[in-house]
Description:
Largest sheet: 6 strands, mixed
Number of helices: 0
Distance between the termini: 16 Å
Number of strands: 6
Shape: globular
Radius of gyration: 12 Å
Amino acid sequence: MYYYRDKDVKEIDLVLEHDGVLNPIEIKKSANPRPELVKVFELLDKASTPRSKGAVVCMKPELGAIDKENYIVPVWMI
């Protein structure tokens, strides 16, 4: 489990490494996370370890997706 922040103050709240891949996770208080939140996940593409699916954990009441690579996960599901 890692936290990512670079010199340009771009950050990813959690980066989970599991089975040789990185899974980025953002944690937001909002119930309506914006798609641009996951743009920062592309920073992990420069790593030597491949990136897989990402997620935004938030207050949205149901499980969903921001796009084909990133999920919206209600905090109550954790």
